[in-house]
Amino acid sequence: MRRTVRLLTGAALAVAAAGAAGAPAYGGSSGSLDVYPSTAAPGAQVTVNTSACGEKGSAVGDASSVGAGTFTLAPSTHEGEAIGEFRVPPSAQPGTYEIVAKCADGTRQVTGDLTVALTPAAGQLQPHGSVKTGVGGALGTDPVQTAAGVAALAVAAAGGTWLLHRRARGDAF
Predict the structure, then answer these.
(1) Residues 134, 138, 140, 143: is their CA dihedral positive or negative?
(2) CA distance 112 to 51
(3) 39-40 β-sheet, strand order
(4) How far apart are CA 109 and CA 100, in angstroms?
(5) How far is Cα 47 from Cα 71, in angstroms, rounded to an integer?
């Protein structure tokens, strides 16, 4: 019993040590990165701000996840926040992207989410409905026509099977 307890305790300590070794180099992520608007269409201008870098702090933003590259967040008079902007590329695909800002002093990193969505007002629509390929649906949804089609297929299958059976036995047509 003691041996099992020692093994489990040793395993728990090893896991805790591995978790501490993999901790981020940044001093913490107090504060947040606010993204306005949080949902934007491709081609839209997005503003980000954070107070995590201090009263006069600046930061370097990274929006490469959405394809916009890096941008600068400069100190502003608005509640001691650093503010920056970037444009969502027109080629951005719908989805949620992580935007990152690293304070210039190198002590903090904050993240925020940007959701890219297509907007009907801008002529951007998500595909919906079925594709008209000409395959299937020839009889429509009328149950009588569907039953007649199934019956015709069954008769044809039975007749073909009977003819193949006769040929295999050597009977003439």
Answers:
(1) negative
(2) 13
(3) 34-36, 45-50, 82-87, 70-75, 59-62, 95-103, 109-116, 39-40
(4) 7
(5) 11
- Does residue 148 have a pLDDT over 90? no
* 33 burial level (CB within 10 Å; 0-12, 13-18, 19+): buried
Query: Cα–Cα distance between 154 and 159 in angstroms, integer?
Result: 9
Of 95 and 123, the structure prediction assigns the larger pLDDT to 95
| pLDDT at position 125 | 58
Q: Which two tokens stand for residue 8?
A: 């489990």
Which is it for the CA torsion 51, 53, 55, 60, positive or negative? negative
Alpha-carbon distance 47 to 159, whole Å?
72
Sequence ranges of the domains in the chain: 24-121
Entry pTM: 0.53
Span 24-121: which CATH code? 2.60.40.1930
Q: Kindly give the residue spans of alpha helices, DSSP state H, lying in the chain.
A: 2-21, 143-169
The two tokens of residue 92 are 């951005």
Say how far apart CA 53 and CA 109 lie, in whole Å: 9
pLDDT-based confidence at residue 21 (cuts at 50, 70, 90): very low
- Size of the chain in residues: 173
